[in-house]
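Notes from hallway chat w/ T.B., transcribed later so I don't forget. T.B. wanted the structure written out for a chain they're using in a teaching module, and asked if we could keep both sequence and structure tokens in one place. Agreed to drop them here.
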Amino acid sequence: MKDRAYAKINLCLDIAGVRDDGYHELKMIMVPVNFYDVLEMEPAEETSLAVNRSYLPVNEKNTIISAVRVMQEMYGFRTEFACRLSKHIPTRAGLAGGSADAASAIRMMDTMLGLHMSREEKIEAAKRVGSDVPFCMFNEPSYVEGRGDILYPFDVRTPMDILLVKPRRGVSTKEAFALSDSRPLVHPDCLAMRKALMENDYEGVCRNLGNSLEAASLELVSEIRKIKEELQERGFDGVLMSGSGSTVFGLTRSRALLEETMDELRRRHYFVRHTNILTDRSKGL
């Protein structure tokens, strides 16, 4: 069986506080984008993982293997799986690539084993693997609360082009959150962002971009700031770092600006990708 594991970006990320369990209380606007890894799985005598990127772990540290173990624990089955991942989403990028892969694995196990998991069960399994996995389970634009497990889907009616640009260095999510705890935080209005997306208010989308983690990640990887400044100077209408970074995205409705910028940044060996918000609910292969 084969499935697409879609990346995400955060158009708005607000750290509202620290929870009693040690996780951060978050408010976010998360949207899936049309950019994905491809995961294949089939029942096998033992669980294995083949990946087209040599730097990725193929053991229990990989979110796909972790998802298999979580599902075995939850449902008591003994089936193992041979997994093959075609990896395209960069790591340590703020795009939830590992979380998307885990969510894809859970979806396929649910189908292959006939588990008929409820939405709540899918969220519970996803939450046990990682904080971004619940969102990646459904690939729906959502207002997200808690540690990423409380989802309020909504429809996006604001078209735009998105340019993803990642510097060579990535950002450790753990380090970014730890550093943010000792810094003053911006608190963007995520509900205003949702309203703008639902009402085809492109200017409102650009005006309400914000990320509580951005200042900390800028300290950890200074190149993020350089990319942000360049996209702003080139004329992108809105520019923000996604998640804990290090990917920066620029919003525009100018195809000429998009193509010119892509060509220039590719010549400088950045990771560059043109994408848009995924709104089609039929997203499988």
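Follow-up for T.B.: Residues 70 and 157 are 36 Å apart (CA to CA). Might be a good example for the class.
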